[in-house]
Design a protein that fits this description.
Distance between the termini: 25 Å
Strand content: 5-15%
Oligomer: single chain
Bound molecules: iron/sulfur cluster
CATH architecture: 3-Layer(aba) Sandwich
Structural class: alpha/beta
Strand order of the largest sheet: 2-1-3-4
């Protein structure tokens, strides 16, 4: 059993979380290297509270109390325009002060976002590539999570 907490960007605070939970269940994106035969329990799910991260000092600590071993900063940290300018601060705080490991990303980045960010060039400009490896390296997975595609969820998994 691996226990995790997920923090999402507050710009997506009303997100249902479907893609993150699908990725956890199907071991896609940042969860691809979690063993399929080992359950993953989500002990907490919360938006960061808005720039620069109002809930940063409480949410990961609460998740730790409930057994979280790893905190995932969700893929939406990198999907919006611009990417979260505080991502590195959030990661450093959780690792150094809360004492939990941090993984950047959750579900595979939808193909549509990869196309858009590549056209704009902001990921490169903002040095995001080092955070994107787990969630952009598999084109098939990015297609699978492209919820803007009219065939989304109609394709075979
Ligand atoms: S951009 Fe970063 S700090 Fe601002 S709301 Fe999103 S995750 Fe939080």
């Amino acid at each position: 059993m691996v226990k995790i907490g997920v923090i999402i960007c507050d710009r997506n605070r009303t997100c249902t979380g479907n893609k993150c939970f699908k990725a956890i269940n199907e071991r896609d994106g940042a969860f691809a290297d979690y063993p399929k035969d080992e359950p993953v329990e989500v002990v907490g799910w919360m938006a960061c509270g808005g720039c620069p991260g109002e809930r940063l000092e409480s949410a990961p600590a609460d998740m730790k109390k409930f057994g979280a071993e790893v905190i995932h900063l969700a893929s939406c940290y990198l999907a919006g325009y611009p990417i979260c300018p505080y991502l590195e601060d959030h990661k450093d705080y959780i690792e150094s002060v809360v004492g939990l490991a941090v993984r950047v990303g959750t579900h595979p980045m939808p193909a549509n976002y990869i196309t858009s960010h590549s056209a704009i060039g902001d990921w490169k400009r903002d040095g995001a590539e080092k955070w994107l490896r787990d969630i952009t390296g598999n084109p098939r997975a990015s297609e699978k999570y492209d919820s803007t595609n009219p065939n989304f969820l109609k394709r075979s998994p």
